[in-house]
Design goal:
Blueprint: H1 2-20, E1 30-34, E2 40-48, E3 52-54, H2 66-70, E4 73-78, E5 90-94, E6 98-104, E7 109-114, E8 121-124, E9 133-139, E10 142-148, E11 158-160, E12 175-179, E13 188-199, E14 205-208, E15 210-211, E16 219-220, E17 225-234, E18 239-246, E19 249-256, E20 258-261, E21 264-275, E22 278-282, E23 287-291
Antiparallel strand pairs: 1-2, 1-11, 2-9, 3-4, 4-5, 5-22, 6-7, 6-11, 7-8, 9-10, 12-13, 12-23, 13-14, 13-21, 15-16, 17-18, 17-23, 18-19, 20-21, 21-22
């Protein structure tokens, strides 16, 4: 049943996936690590662990490479000021697009350079297990493991990957997303082409064009929708009241955060949008409001 649900969604999104396919879909096999003493170490036969994951919702069964068939391997980077909750805004950067990662343990920040992106991405190291990267490989003909972003005596100071490739072409950002984070003065991020991400039992992820609403037609964030403002997100009743503006009409829609897909219950993880560095996942509780940018 899960496969059937995935197949249906895949047909719906085939145009979006084709338009956003990453040129950085090959996982790097070698790196230069800067260890705790500042010494550079060449590492080959890389195997990634904590801090990375497959983006299965971008998998292409007919892909030419293992990464394409399973979905690109991506670095998970939590937005520095995304929320006061554990589940914040996550940027997924294809590992093949990462040029380097530097860790400043005194300032408790990680800096990620992405090929083709002018400014490095920032991530906080203030929370245990957040923005941590672990990987293994061969260094000097010996098996070795490395960890960045952890406050241990053998943590690394940085890692660089040769041959990084830019993320696939992105269109202009067509949404401005204001984050629900008063301590950071509710910053605004840019993204485009939003879809809804649902998680099914067993971790199966389903990306859809539309979200089921309690009454009326499913909600699609197409060009007709100019504003999307969560009014109330209830984690107990698993519902969210959203004020949307469609043309000149404003209305409230109720989005259940659990829906049936292929005979299984799927939970809404949030909205996924394209950004220059890859993709961002915005859980509903992190969004103060979304609107279209003003046209010049």
């Amino acid at each position: 049943m899960q496969r059937r649900a995935w197949a249906v969604v895949g047909v719906v999104l085939i145009g979006w996936l084709a338009g956003t396919a990453s040129r950085a879909d090959d996982t790097p096999t070698e790196a230069t690590v800067t260890d705790v003493e500042g010494k550079e170490v060449k590492v080959t036969a890389l195997k990634f662990g904590t801090g990375t994951r497959r983006l299965a919702w971008l998998a292409d069964a007919a892909g030419a490479t293992d990464d394409a068939k399973k979905g690109p391997f991506a670095l998970e980077l939590r937005e520095p000021h995304s929320t006061t909750y554990a589940k914040g805004i996550i940027t997924y950067v294809p590992v093949g697009a990462v040029e380097s990662i530097k860790y400043d343990y005194d300032k408790q920040v990680a800096s990620v350079a992405v090929k083709g992106v002018a400014e490095p991405l920032a991530g906080t190291l203030q929370y245990k297990g957040i923005n941590v990267l672990s990987f293994g490989g061969t260094a000097g003909d010996k098996a070795a493991t490395f960890s960045g972003g952890v406050f241990t005596k053998d943590h690394i100071k940085g890692v660089a990957f040769p041959g990084a490739k830019p993320v696939g072409k992105r269109g202009p950002a067509n949404w401005l997303v204001q984050i629900e984070q008063p301590k950071a003065e509710n910053p605004t991020l840019k993204a485009s082409n939003f879809k809804f991400l649902y998680v099914m039992p067993g971790g199966v992820e389903v990306l859809t064009d539309t979200a089921t609403v309690r009454k009326g037609d499913p909600l699609k964030l197409d060009d007709a929708v100019t504003a999307f403002t969560p009014v109330a997100v209830d984690p107990n009743n698993l519902t969210a009241a959203i004020e949307v503006q469609i043309g000149n009409v404003e209305k409230i829609v109720i989005i259940p955060q659990q829906v049936e897909m292929g005979g299984k219950m799927a939970t809404l993880a949030g909205l996924v949008g394209e950004v220059d560095a890859g993709w961002k996942l915005f859980p509903l509780h992190t969004i103060k409001g979304m609107k279209r940018p003003k046209k010049d």
